Amino acid sequence: MPNLSPATARALRRLIAPVLAGSCCAARAADTMDNAYWNMPKGVTQISHEVWWLHMFAFWICVVIGIGVFGVMFYSLFAHRRSRHPVPAQFHENTTVEIVWTIIPFLILIVMAVPAAGTLIKMYDTRDSDLTVRITGYQWKWQYEYVGQGVSFFSTLKADANAARQLGSGIDPATVPNYLHDVDRPLVLPVGKKVRFLLTSNDVIHGWWVPDLAIKKDAIPGYINEMWTKIDEPGTYRGQCTVLCGRDHGFMPIVVKALPEAEFEQWLAQEKSAAAAGTPPAAETPPAPAAAPSSSGSAPGAAADQPAAVDPPSHDP
Amino acid sequence: MAHTHADHAGHGHVHDEHAHGPERGIMRWIKTTNHKDLGTLYLWFSGIMFVIGGLMSLGIRLELFHPGLQYMDPETFNQLTTMHALVMIFGGVMPAFVGLANWQVPLMIGCSDLALPRVNNWGFWILPFAFTLLLSTFFLPGGAPAAGWTLYPPLVLQTGNSFPLLIFAIHLMGISSITGAINIIVTILNMRAPGMTLLKMPLFVWSWLITAYLLIAVMPVLAGAVTMLLTDKYFGTSFFNAGGGGDPVMFEHIFWFFGHPEVYIMILPAFGIISTIVPTFARKPLFGYASMVYALASIAFLSFIVWAHHMFTVGIPLAGELFFMFSTMLISVPTGVKVFNWVATMWKGSMSFETPMLFAIAFIFLFTIGGFSGLMLALAPVDFQYHNTYFVVAHFHYVLVPGAVFAIMAAIYYWIPKWTGVMYNETLGKIHFWWSAIFINVIFFPQHFLGLAGMPRRIPDYAVQFTDFNEISSIGAFLFFIGQFIFIYNILRCALFRKGLKPAAARVWEGAHGLEWTVPSPAPYHTFEDPPQEVDTETPWVAGHPAVAH
Q1: B24 classed as catalytic
Q2: Would you tell me which of A256, B20, B222, B274 could form a disulfide with A237, CB atoms 3.0–4.6 Å apart?
Q3: pLDDT digits over B69-91, tens only?
Q4: Chain B residues 356-415 with CB within 8 Å of chain A
């Protein structure tokens, strides 16, 4: 299953889902399984589909084992209660049974481990990428740099959300579109191209995660982590910082805007010429000097009680 | 047979200071070296810490009730989440298990006290001091530590005035745990009643023997890790600073080398308790005693080689990631074996459902659900979607609350008639059980969905699509907390206001086996000053017991 194209996998799942879900309506079962209210999103990459499949596979195995074990237990609680079963048996060991219920779970684990290892190996293969983006975490925003293109900018929580989230602001978050999941400048990426990310931090450990891409990695000061994605569908995908990084850890979201390749090239050309002309587009905050990996470690080492990042004004209460 | 003070005088021993019983007043509690008194002190301390930690969790759930910030700024929220975990782990769960060990291990192996009674006293009294230091940080300028109980640098090095108090408190708690663990090992290995070979020991004693080794192995590692934080902050070292040649990830490795065995330290005694309670109320010996011992030992051994599953997203090399995925999945095998053995103990037994048994059954059901989410988390590629989301929060609260905490409550209901001589109120016990069992699921089951839908951990405010499940979880938290007052009332009646309660027999529970049931209820201040004679009749899994057919 992991090696099928998304469309074929989707079709197969629609066939299998009702069997797995015990539901009679194939389409409804598949949609429920994918519903982001109850479940992980299937996402928009081959890897995200594989990851979703592994998640559901593990989940259903656990459900079956649970029904088996708890079924026996609840039956016993009913049938072997004192009033129904006044004389207890005294058996208290059986080596064969111990061996059997050690070996069978071990075999089930192997069945889970093999596809999981396969997907993990694929996720680690960052070779042959078409585009490289360096992501740097700051307290409390992200910086994106298109390596070799001369384009870089900060991406911070959108102003309307930032106003609403202040303590006692009186603004109802429901009136803010994509509250806490929108930024002033999204990361724009091409559809259908393998994008490699180089991830680091300027101060403390952060984490970069977009559920629809199924990639998450920690941004560590002084070190560079790698990950990759290849987005299959145009759209806007939202994520958040996932490592506690201080006061505004919950307020530094991630937005990825995936454009068809031609539109992406157009966008990139515009950005390049704006950067070359020195006239940043309206929403951009003044970029800090791009921190080289070897120097970014020095800030946290100076026993500092203050965050080291260059701050745009929007995060002060 | 247990001896009373009168018998003691008759043997020609001179015990001036307790010829008329233990000392009166507060000095009794300050100076006591008696395992029963210290067990009581640990349990009282743990109870107070659970209330404090619980209040913090209410603060967290209050702010998370609705999106937007209504009650506190994000820094305060981070202090609450950090301190909630530190208080619950080091002040709640661990001291409770130590208190149960103090009370029960000597009674179960038939010796008069722990091997090092004065060290036992000191190990306890460190804790109120350590927690006064830790909790006082809320009142310092800058507030309490707010970097998470996992203390990752560089963030934790941004902590202000509370930092030295935090480190010192952790060192003190570690010393308490290490000395307590040494005490327990020496006692179990040297002071068992004649005839009680290791493979005749009650499983609770086995679980504590193994837990004590885990404590000695890993608490010093935590001490090393926090000391390196201290020197990085104040003495110019660069252990965790890349600019100076160090590595923040090294902290994570050292911390989790402690941290993973730590969670097994918090669950192994619980396994021992369940293995005690289920046979009693099924009126049937524990199924697979030897397997259960080997499972405990396997879990303890494996717990040392899985730590990096807390670090799947830090960027460790592929081979390492695969190794830790496989080793973590492997731990589910001995754990599953234990669950099967408990069910096999119930099978064809003759079960009654008093409060301790209700909590034990809920443990088996709900801990196993926590185990299932743990197995899902072990799959590294999928963990990239779960890591640091509410899916993880749901997982560890399932194994800790309906896991460890329900086992602690089961043990208290089970043994409090032995400790106090009176029966707790069974109706109130059942109400407390059903209330807790229902609301614990209301709190934590929806958190699985929150994590899958994309809500990260340790955030005070969230996108509006996460509102419904946060509301449900918060309501559950307040209701669960209120229900615990039923438990507190029931326990206080037994401990302090016993008038009108039914007296307890020596063998409180009809199906109970073990040396502790051969002494009167309440257990006399000194028990087993002479070795007991009933080892073989009180260990029903051994051939030769009249009830056991081989």
Answers
A1: no
A2: A256
A3: 999 999 999 999 999 999 999 99
A4: 361, 364-365, 368-369, 372, 375-376, 379-382, 384-385, 387-389
